[in-house]
Design a protein that fits this description.
7-stranded mixed β-sheet; single chain; alpha+beta; 2 domains; 248 residues; 13 strands; SH3 type barrels; 18% helix; globular; Photosynthetic Reaction Center, Chain H, domain 2; 6-stranded mixed β-sheet
Length: 248
């Protein structure tokens, strides 16, 4: 099932023993577009902390009640490695966090989603130490909130900006960026597969895709009011000649 990420922002985070706060962001790995962390607004319970939650701890989302039900208790979350509210997520922190939750290090297993069958088992056996090369690697996670609004640069010029992202809730993976082309085509949005993204310039707020403006302009229109269907995806992928990921 695909859902716009913006719809999940502000969903209530429901721990096993009560409400924890609200979802306020997602952190994504820019090499595989996998959602690695949910960011919780939990100031009532853990003031001054940035609280990261594993996507695999989410049960089926409750769309009618706008809740993300978690397979975690508040105490388990409170015991996770602390991170100051505005601190970046370093590789060293990721190592501690993944070891705490018993999750395999995704940067060592890029071909996997990176989540174990039981990521919340307590107590968790920590590894004695991380390798020096692991600690020195750069973390490649970034905020989806910060990505929203960035300009989309086609191979022959700008074509719009990122309006939203469509996430695959089963795989916890981003599939498409929703591109708003209002500066060129008023009130028109289209979807671009994230496999087409060739570079991200966070300093200049730009995202480069390996498509021409003409191709994007003429691509099937996306209606954010209508849920994403497989039929629309078939038309979209046939238009661009993209492989159909759901057939793999």
């Amino acid at each position: 099932m695909l859902i716009e990420v913006s719809q999940l922002i502000s969903y209530v985070l429901q721990a096993e023993d009560g409400e924890l706060g609200r979802c306020k962001d997602f952190l994504v790995d820019d090499r595989g577009w996998n959602i690695r962390y949910l960011v919780g607004d939990t100031r009532k319970w853990f003031p001054g902390r940035k609280v990261l939650l594993p996507p695999s701890s989410v049960k089926e989302p409750d769309f009618s009640e706008r809740r993300l039900l978690l397979k975690l208790t508040k105490e388990q979350i409170k015991g996770s490695p602390p991170l100051e509210e505005h601190a970046p997520v370093s590789r060293q922190y990721e190592i501690m966090w993944f070891d705490y939750y018993g999750i395999s290090h995704y940067w060592l297993e890029e071909d996997k989603i990176g989540m174990t069958e039981n990521p919340t088992a307590i107590p968790i056996a920590r590894r004695e130490s991380a390798t020096a090369s692991e600690e020195q690697q750069e973390s490649h996670v970034f905020s989806l909130k910060e990505m929203t609004g960035k300009a989309i640069a086609a191979i022959d010029g700008d074509i719009g900006h990122v309006a939203d992202f469509l996430a695959d809730m089963k795989a916890w993976k981003l599939r498409y960026a929703v591109v708003d082309t209002r500066n060129w085509l008023p009130d028109r949005q289209v979807c671009v597969s994230l496999t087409c993204v060739e570079w991200v310039d966070r300093l200049r707020d730009r995202v480069g895709v390996g498509l021409s403006r003409e191709m994007i302009k003429n691509s099937p229109e996306y209606n954010p009011v209508v849920p994403m269907t497989e039929a629309y995806q078939v038309v979209l992928h046939d238009y661009y000649g993209w492989p159909k990921y759901w057939e793999n």
